Amino acid sequence: MDPRMHPADPPAAAVVQLRAQPITLQGAPALLELYRAAPDYFDLLGTQIPSLGEVESDIGLALLDRRRHVELLCLGEEVTGLIDWKTDYPEPGDVTINLLLIRREYRSRGLGHQAVRNLEARLPQGTQRVLASVLGINPGARGCGRAWATALP
């Protein structure tokens, strides 16, 4: 058995592809639920899990920034993660992943890698580099870092 699979996981043929869904204000409760399912991320940052109002405010700000893309990562209808990325940052032609967050129970299954590959497949024309912003001492980001430390031709 694949060590990344759990006994309750469906067989490989039935595994659903990870889908990135752009967030809307209506997605704030789902994002808050995701944050609550990943308290270790906020512990790493030394902050509290935001309130629903704070999540709604952040989504509103993201929607006003044409360069920022906040997407829920879904397996079927279940929200399993988030990718927050920005174009032309810090330089024109750069794409920076500001946050890649996977629910604790879905980690170590390759979903972060799949999310980055999905993003790479739909990068805006003219993208020259994909960068990652990693805050704090984040051992989980080390493995993904190899996947997204990409200089494009």
From TrEMBL:
<protein>
    <submittedName>
        <fullName>GNAT family N-acetyltransferase</fullName>
        <ecNumber>2.3.1.-</ecNumber>
    </submittedName>
</protein>
<dbReference type="Pfam" id="PF00583">
    <property type="entry name" value="Acetyltransf_1"/>
</dbReference>
<dbReference type="GO" id="GO:0016746">
    <property type="term" value="F:acyltransferase activity"/>
</dbReference>
<keyword id="KW-0808">Transferase</keyword>
<keyword id="KW-0012">Acyltransferase</keyword>
<dbReference type="InterPro" id="IPR000182">
    <property type="entry name" value="GNAT_dom"/>
</dbReference>
<feature type="domain" description="N-acetyltransferase">
    <location>
        <begin position="70"/>
        <end position="141"/>
    </location>
</feature>
<dbReference type="InterPro" id="IPR016181">
    <property type="entry name" value="Acyl_CoA_acyltransferase"/>
</dbReference>
